[in-house]
Each structure stands twice: as C-alpha cells, then as structure tokens.
C-alpha cells in the first residue's frame, strides 16, 4: 500500500508492528536515514538493538546470499518483543534476492524495513510494496518540511515553549538547511535552553543556528546597505588577505540587493516581502534586512542593482585594466554613498 506524504509522517512515529514490511525510497539519503531511524526506534524501542531484535543486512550481501534475509526474518529471538530486519541501500538489481523472502513472510516473522534510492514506477520493489495488503511504500521527497513535521521534531526534542516569532524563524530555518543539520540545531537549542524556563526566542535560535561560511562577506554587505562607507576600507583589507575573489564579492552583493529589492517592492509592503524571499531570512537578520529594504526603497534599490550590474560586467570584460578588487571597492563606496541620499 502507498503511504501519502501526510500519512507517512504519522506512520513513521507510530508504525504497526504486525506488518510485513516498509519500503522507504527517494533521492535524499539524509531524509531517508532519519525516517528509517525513527520508524525502527518506534518498532523495537530503545533497547531493541541491545536485545538483538534488530538485524542489519546490506542489500549487496543479500544478493550474494539470498538465504540471509529469509533466515533473519524467520529467526526466533531470545528476548520478547517486535523484531525488525533492516535492509540497507536496496536497488532494483537486488529485487530478485529480496522478494522471495518477503513472499514467504508469515505472521510472527520479523518486519522488514528497506531503504532505497530513486525507484521508477516500474520497479519490482515498488510494485511489490505498493500492491501488498500488509506492507507499505513511502516516497521521501526533497520538499521543505511541513508544519506538522516541524512540530513533530520539536516534540521529539522536548521543545514545547516557543514564541510565535521563534516558531516562524524555525520554520524558515528548516527550509534553508539540511534535515540532519536541522535536527542537530534542535538538539543544540535544547542544551542551550537547559535550566532556562523562559520561552524560546529568535535570539536563542540565532545563537545556535549554523554559522554562515561567508560571515565577513555578509558583514560587508550590511556595511554597504547601511551606508557605513568609513568601514569599507578596513574590512576590504581583511577580505583581500583571506583571498576572497572580487567576483565572489560582486555575486554576494547582487544577491543581497536583489533580496532587498524583492522585500521593498512587494505589493503588500516590506512586511509581506520579507515572508516570501527565498532562501528565507530568519532570526535577528530578518529585522536587519527588513530595515535595510525599507531604508533604501524600491526605486533606489533599482539604481543600486544597475550599479552592481555595471561593475560585474566590467569585471568580466576583456578590456578591463584596473585592479579588480579596487574596482569592486569603488563600487561599494558609491553604493554606500547612494544609501545616504
């Protein structure tokens, strides 16, 4: 039977122990691994592996010796409780070795959890699970997590007291980073708030969120957008010493001012625009970007984008003779001065 994305979220948290098996497949290996961990933990419990009620079998080994899977499914455990056989990294070439053991499954046998990458609709594995009355197939897509999935992660992490602003920023963060990084961020947030009974705030989230790998470039973009022309020179020296390329800086500048323009030019105002930008902006940076967009205004931001485009074209021109970094620095100063007008 097929599990829809909405039904799958609930099933992973509360799986049925008397099913033949579950096939989890999709393109994102991290998302699949997290779902597999969740469903197996719910089936066998925290002591399942120690009590030898969980058997791990790589699909490649089953292909070499199909009896391994059949024996693991039929094996009788020493400890009471549900048993699971986890088959990892299955592909269509492994189907002939896997399916006979599943067809021989009887009540009381171990449940089989299989993970796989992308499978075509014609896949024998997919067809078996989707048409089986006592088994499920769940496709994992690369879509951002839904509100239900985020709330389930919060509950699992023990975070129940969040302000509305913090929940909004957390939803934005979930769309901007990988699922594994998101779960680690929640774990860090739990430790960060340990012993603190106050609600989680955007500042708390910003303190534990993954740091940008381009922090100093972001600092430069903020300096320019906030008309702090006197600070451009010293920071420019640091960026030059770090080996930052002029084109990299120009690309970051274009991206930042396009974001500001999208916020300022939104039909419903900057407040609506900040909610629609992608990738989303969260935490204290959200308020900073909002202030910058409102300070510039859509018309002036159009002029700034024209200036940045001309600088980018000059950098890429074969006839350009001026030092590239000096060209970018001059453009940054012009933009900062433009913000004051």
Structure in words:
The protein is an alpha/beta fold. The protein has three domains: about 1-140, P-loop containing nucleotide triphosphate hydrolases (Rossmann fold, 3-Layer(aba) Sandwich); about 145-210, no CATH class; about 215-340, Zinc Finger, Delta Prime, domain 3 (Up-down Bundle), CATH 1.20.272. It has helices at about 5-15, 30-45, 60-65, 65-75, 95-105, 125-130, 145-155, 165-175, 180-190, 200-210, 215-225, 230-240, 245-265, 270-275, 285-295, 300-315, 325-340; strands at about 1-5, 20-25, 55-60, 85-90, 110-115, 135-140. It has a six-stranded parallel β-sheet with strand order 1-6-2-5-4-3, sandwiched between helices. Strand 4, helix 5 and strand 5 (about 110-115) form a beta-alpha-beta unit. Helix 4 (about 65-75) packs parallel to helix 5, helix 12 (about 230-240) packs antiparallel against helix 17 (about 325-340) and helix 13 crosses helix 15 (about 285-295). It starts with a strand and ends with a helix. The relative contact order is 0.09. The mean pLDDT is about 85. This is DNA-directed DNA polymerase.
